[in-house]
Amino acid sequence: PLKVALQKIKDKCKATQEEFWVGLLYTVAKTVTFLEQAGINQRDLHTSNIHVYEGKLKVFDFGLSVGPHWI
């Protein structure tokens, strides 16, 4: 399941294997860091929330995210 989901995402990217993994790790780390600095907790991060948009990996679907004023 995880391997298949990641392969589907990779197939949509026009990147080498190395570029894909570096890009995936960078994108997820950058997104989580940005959200944490804004006081937002992304509680639903998984492969179905990572998409290729205009050739770049993006994290989508923040529906279960909560900020400090929501807790």
Secondary structure layout plus pairing:
Blueprint (H helix, E strand, L loop, with lengths): L1 H11 L4 H21 L12 E4 L2 E4 L12
Antiparallel strand pairs: 1-2
Number of strands: 2
Which class of secondary structure composition applies to the elements?
A: alpha+beta
Strand content: 5-15%
Main β sheet profile: 2 strands, antiparallel
Structure commentary:
This protein is an alpha+beta fold. Helices cover 45% and strands 11% of the residues. It is built from 2 helices and 2 strands, in the order H-H-E-E. Strands 1-2 form a two-stranded antiparallel sheet. It is elongated, with a radius of gyration of 13 Å. The protein starts with a helix and ends in a 12-residue tail after the last strand. The mean pLDDT is 79.
Task: Write out key terms for the chains shown.
71 residues; alpha+beta; two-stranded antiparallel sheet; 2 strands; elongated
